[in-house]
Structures are given as structure tokens and as C-alpha cells.
Design goal:
Blueprint lengths: L4 E8 L8 E8 L6 H12 L18 E4 L2 E4 L10 E3 L5 E4 L2 E3 L18
Parallel strand pairs: 1-5
Antiparallel strand pairs: 1-2, 3-4, 3-5, 6-7
Length: 119
């Protein structure tokens, strides 16, 4: 780890709450850190109550899909940047925090790939 830190805002909301809130976390930076790495760090080292879903870490299962600064992204593939805002995908029912109910069948046409473009 480089000693450098990054700040991110993460959506927090319990089931049954009508509105969520953004909580800011500071995580250490290391070479190659992805958004999912930061979320797992928060869950394991800072706040065990953070609900986040992931499975394969290779852009296959799409369970780590989230809104990153308002765009649909796979958090296992996107490098973490300072000041990012991480929220659940709004078109699915929220279970808690960043976890949504995808439904019984995960149809690849229903789930978008990363919307980042090289600009």
C-alpha cells in the first residue's frame, strides 16, 4: 500500500426505509485497486454491516453491477478513483445498501456492461 488514501461515498439503506443516505469512507490506495476491492475493504475492516454482492470478480456473473457516479458499472472491473459515488442499480428492488434483487433469471441482455468510455 502506498500510504495514499481515497474517499468514496457509498449508498446505505436498510430494507423498509423510504430513503437512503450516502456515507463517506476513506480507504487505502494500492496499485490496481478496483471499486469492489474498496467495498470489500470497507466491509471487512471498517463497517461489517455494509451489504454488497459479488461472485466471480471476472466480469461474468454481473452481480457486482452498481451505479458509479450515475453510470451502470461492474465494480469488479473499474479502478477506484477519489470522490466516486457508489449506489445500487435503481431499476431493481433494493434489499439493503448496494444489494438488489436481480430476479430468478439473469438474462445478459438485461444487464449492461460498463458505460465507461475512453475520452
Amino acid at each position: 500500500m502506498s500510504g495514499r488514501t481515497l474517499r468514496i461515498k457509498v449508498h446505505r439503506q436498510d430494507a423498509g426505509e423510504t430513503e437512503g443516505r450516502l456515507e463517506e469512507y476513506t480507504v487505502p490506495h494500492w496499485e490496481g485497486i478496483k471499486i469492489l476491492d474498496a467495498l470489500r475493504y470497507i466491509q471487512e475492516e471498517i463497517d461489517h454491516s455494509l451489504a454488497v454482492r459479488w461472485s466471480c470478480r471476472i466480469e461474468d456473473c454481473r452481480t457486482c453491477q452498481m451505479l458509479v457516479n450515475g453510470k451502470s458499472m461492474l465494480s469488479c472491473q473499474i479502478p477506484l478513483e477519489d470522490g466516486m459515488v457508489i449506489e445500487p442499480i435503481p431499476r431493481f428492488r433494493l434489499i439493503r445498501d448496494l444489494v438488489v434483487e436481480f430476479g430468478e433469471k439473469m438474462d445478459a441482455t438485461e444487464y449492461s456492461k460498463n458505460e465507461f468510455t475512453d475520452s
